């Protein structure tokens, strides 16, 4: 009786080898794709960062041929170079570390270092003769990291504007920190209280801070108490590290206690 040929494709060894080859091929394709797209991703991150910095000082749209136009990523480098006059990498004592590129500082990594070893980036803008100080922020929301920028006017006390973002806050609740209506609440708030203490701006549920610009408060997001508290803590925690630099500035007139 003639023996039937063995179908090797049905063997366990063949299945295993096929699976291994497919894993290697797919992994190689994904790695190649990720590597190829990395430069594009880096450019996108850089341009979005410039957009956010400019947005805190009111440059989120510009006039093009007399028509108000959204500041796109294609346009942002030109206006960033025009309005951001200095990028400083500050040490904990308020001195400037000339060897560090402030724009390239990764705040997430810096927060993992001891306070005295961290670098604190600062961007100085000049808009129509008005000077502003833009400070990067990073903290923790309900589920994950939150971050943003806050700009102070030349008195180093009054907020010009703020921008916030998040990694994983709840849509319709904590994720509302990215909305313009919430960010606008911070405009013209004070970061020092009447006694000269640096307290930042707190998002407090039911606060009347939206109308009272001298109480260091804004109304929190309804149903997002933890995220609102995270924004409050992030602002006060980050700002306090800039106090040594503030005290050295000629225009700083807050009576510190």
- Please bin the fraction of helical residues: 25-40%
Percentage of β-strand residues: 15-25%
Count of β-strands: 9
Number of H- or I-type helical stretches: 6
Strand order of the largest sheet: 3-4-5-6-7
Family: Belongs to the NqrC family.
Subunit structure: Composed of six subunits; NqrA, NqrB, NqrC, NqrD, NqrE and NqrF.
Subcellular location: Cell membrane
GO molecular function, one term: FMN binding
List keywords for this structure.
about 260 residues, alpha+beta, five-stranded antiparallel β-sheet, two-stranded antiparallel ribbon, 6 helices, about 35% helix, about 20% strand
Task: Describe the overall structure.
The model has no long low-confidence stretch (mean pLDDT 87). The chain has helices spanning 12-56, 73-83, 107-110, 180-183, 225-240, 243-246, and strands spanning 61-64, 67-70, 84-90, 120-127, 130-140, 145-152, 159-166, 202-204, 217-219. The chain has one domain (63-246). By secondary structure, it is of the alpha+beta class. It starts with 11 loop residues before the first helix and ends in an 11-residue tail after the last helix. 33% of the residues lie in helices and 22% in strands. It is built from six helices and nine strands; from the N terminus they run αββαβαββββαββαα. It has a five-stranded antiparallel β-sheet with strand order 3-4-5-6-7. The radius of gyration is 25 Å and the shape is globular. It catalyses: a ubiquinone + n Na(+)(in) + NADH + H(+) = a ubiquinol + n Na(+)(out) + NAD(+). Its cofactor is FMN. This is Na(+)-translocating NADH-quinone reductase subunit C. Its EC number is 7.2.1.1. Belongs to the NqrC family.
């Amino acid at each position: 009786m003639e023996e039937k040929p063995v179908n090797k494709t049905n063997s366990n060894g063949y299945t295993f080898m096929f699976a291994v080859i497919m894993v290697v091929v797919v992994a190689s394709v994904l790695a190649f794709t990720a590597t190829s797209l990395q430069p594009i991703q880096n450019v996108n991150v850089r341009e979005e960062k410039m957009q956010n910095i400019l947005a805190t000082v009111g440059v989120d749209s510009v006039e093009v041929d007399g028509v108000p136009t959204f500041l796109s990523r294609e346009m942002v480098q030109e206006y960033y170079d025009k309005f951001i006059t200095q990028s400083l990498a500050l040490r904990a004592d308020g001195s400037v570390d000339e060897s560090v590129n402030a724009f390239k500082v990764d705040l997430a990594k810096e927060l993992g270092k001891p306070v005295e070893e961290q670098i604190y980036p600062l961007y100085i803008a000049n808009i129509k003769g008005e000077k502003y100080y833009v400070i990067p922020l990073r903290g923790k929301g309900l589920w994950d990291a939150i971050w943003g920028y806050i700009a102070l006017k030349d008195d180093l006390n009054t907020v010009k504007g703020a921008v916030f973002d998040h990694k994983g806050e709840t849509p319709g609740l904590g994720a509302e920190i990215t909305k313009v209506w919430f960010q606008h609440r911070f405009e013209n708030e004070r970061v020092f209280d009447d006694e000269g203490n640096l307290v930042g701006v707190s998002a407090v549920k039911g606060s009347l801070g939206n109308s009272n610009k001298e109480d260091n408060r804004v109304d929190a997001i309804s149903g997002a108490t933890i995220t609102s508290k995270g924004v409050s803590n992030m602002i006060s925690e980050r700002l306090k590290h800039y106090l040594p630099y503030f005290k050295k500035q000629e225009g700083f007139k807050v009576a510190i206690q």
